[in-house]
Known about the structure:
With about 525 residues, this protein is α/β, with parallel strands linked by helices. Helices cover about 45% and strands about 15% of the residues.
Amino acid sequence: MFFITTAIDYTNGAPHIGHAYEKVLTDVIARYRRLCGDEVFYLTGVDQHGQKVQQTAEKEGVHPATFAKKKTKLFLNLWKKLGLRYDGWAETTDDRHKACVQAILTDLQERGELYKKAYKGFYSVRQEQFLTDRDRNESGEFGPEWGEVVEIEEENWYFKLSAHAAWLKDYVASNPDFVIPGFRRNELVGALANSAELDLCISRPKERLRWGIEFPFDPDFVTYVWFDALINYISFAGYLAKDDAGLPDFDGTWKTGRPVHVIGKDILVPAHGIYWPSMLHAIGFTDEQLPQILVHGWWNIKGEKMSKSLGNVVDPDELADKFGVDALRYYLVRDITTGKDADFDLDRLVMLYNQELANELGNLCNRALNMNARYCGGAVKTGGETNADDIELRKSLTTVTADYRAAMDSYDIAEGLKAINRHVTACNAYAERNKPWELAKDPANQPRLESVLAHLVESLAHCALLLSPVLPEPAERIAAQLRVDNLMDLQLDDLKWGIIPDGHQTGKPKPVFPKIVIEESE
Ligand code: MSP
């Protein structure tokens, strides 16, 4: 079982392009692993508790639950529109999740992992956390990134994070693939080297925050939003679930394989790199049962962070309507290297779609099917006259498929797509060299003509399957035009030369990737 999750998105606002990127990236990885023959469980969802939701709901004069539900719908609708295929949906207000969080709290409390103490200090309302002197800037102040900072004294529950610090350092040092890519892991290693080994405050008094999961043994407190949210990865995998809870029939200890958590770079340190492994360790998970963290970078706008205050937030819903879901899905994984940041650039979205899909792949699809219909009555003939150019084309496909697999196995989707594109370009150049339209002028060339067209049609079928994790619907449309009904049921290991049998009838081409035309006035 390949268990893959995304971060769960805050429901204090609407989904933006960063959220969409993470979910599409994970969808592509999940679909790719299904193509490899793995049984996959893709879990995503929303983080509905916390101060921000409570505050925004108050401003709107509605109950936080009503507000969170309303925002959750925006996410659900967008994920549907973007064609995500996930298997589990996590909402932190779900009773099954609450029960799991409370059971974990009780267990940790009974085993001496929690304690209650009074603390006086500075608190950032925006970041929902206490600050220390280490959070002050060079001039000794708490910078604007912390928003409103207030001094408060209150009692709270603490998790003995420091008791796991030595273990965590050792774990991270001896498990280099805990965080990928490597340069993101280095950020964690650096943070651990400088860490002050403090304990983690995991409660908020109800008089300050009501919108959270109640402490089962101290009902004046609710659970800190991160402690609650991180547990979604196991609660929705069936950890501690009652048999009838309607969750997947997982062994909550993940004996079925190591899960992969896909998250953005901003929530590696401390949440996923420090709190989460320490929590799992305290709960009783062994080193072998810890997840792997795949960290992606951020989409920026003209080098700047996307933010509501800058007014440069890109709305994925609008983009999908304007340019189509295919162009958006393609761009989101084609123009960024997993782990690094990139600039979201609409000109590049249009250019990459028009060039690589509308022109190159679209052209291959159109000419292969058209000429096969016109010159061979739609029947693929595999026994034609082969020459060295055909052998080169087959070599290109073998190389490209291996490159694609290596890239996709290491989550480098952009390189996987570039590999497919290399073969598509090779096919179009092969067509230009062999000129089937010229060969067709003399019946004596028929055996050669048949071979050229068979090579183009066979290549097209392979490319459609390789593209299917990123663009599932267009891949199906190509399969339908090729009239290979079971193409999308094949797995990568089935991709050997000869999936189109001799005499196979292909269908009519219809444009799969209509060109995006931008009006002058826009
Ligand atoms: N609710 C927490 C996560 C809890 S996970 C147990 C959270 N939510 S968030 O809505 O702020 O962010 C959700 C995800 O979107 C994070 O992984 C974050 O890195 C990602 N992104 C937010 N802005 C982004 C970009 N501009 N670009 C790419 N991803 C970004 O953090």
